């Protein structure tokens, strides 16, 4: 379970990130080994991580680290993300948009209240959500 929280947060925000070919990860590579399907298939885990990210519940050390990474990932176009992290992020975002749109809306409101990143990355977002 270690590292799941971190990947979920990065995943939730990665749709806002520009694609980068740089395989060098600035975020922990342990995130690359998380089974995203397992996380998304466990409602309790999804809710716990959502509460952490939305500051409605407690966070594990990994969750705290993840919350710190999101603003950087948004600002830098996810240039520190590995390709595997980006792929996982897209999978999580697509799942949230399709299965948990209310939760997705809360996450976007929390991490992009002005809509700056939504506008900036809208084209990329549409390519993997549809």
Features:
130 residues; mainly alpha; Antennal chemosensory protein a6; 0% strand; globular
Please report the total strand number as a whole number.
Answer: 0
Number of alpha- plus pi-helical segments = 8
Q: What name does the CATH topology carry?
A: Antennal chemosensory protein a6
Radius of gyration based on Cα positions: 13 Å
Overall form? globular
The name of the CATH superfamily reads Insect odorant-binding protein A10/Ejaculatory bulb-specific protein 3
By CATH, the architecture is named Orthogonal Bundle
Number of structural domains: 1
Order of helices and strands: HHHHHHHH
Instruction: Give the CATH class.
Output: Mainly Alpha
Mean pLDDT across all residues, rounded?
77
Which parts are unreliable, with pLDDT below 50 for 5 consecutive residues or more?
Answer: 1-10, 12-25
From the N-terminal CA to the C-terminal CA, the straight-line distance is 29 Å
Biggest beta-sheet profile: none
Q: Helical residue percent?
A: 55-70%
SSE-based structural type = mainly alpha
User: Into which percentage range does the β-strand content fall?
Assistant: under 5%
Signal peptide: 1-19
Pfam families: OS-D
InterPro entries: A10/PebIII, OS_D_A10/PebIII_sf
Keywords: Signal
């Amino acid at each position: 379970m270690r590292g799941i929280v971190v990947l979920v947060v990065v995943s939730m925000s990665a749709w806002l990130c520009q694609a980068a070919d740089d395989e060098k990860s600035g975020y922990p590579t342990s995130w690359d080994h998380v089974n995203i399907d397992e996380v998304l298939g466990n409602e309790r885990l999804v809710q716990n991580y959502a509460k952490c990210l939305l500051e409605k519940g407690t966070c594990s050390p990994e969750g705290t680290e993840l919350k710190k990474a999101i603003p950087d990932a948004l600002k830098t176009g996810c240039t520190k993300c590995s390709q595997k992290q980006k792929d996982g992020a897209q999978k999580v975002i697509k799942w949230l948009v399709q299965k948990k749109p209310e939760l997705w809306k809360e996450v976007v409101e929390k991490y992009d209240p002005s809509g700056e990143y939504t506008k900036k990355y809208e084209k990329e977002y549409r390519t993997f959500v549809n």
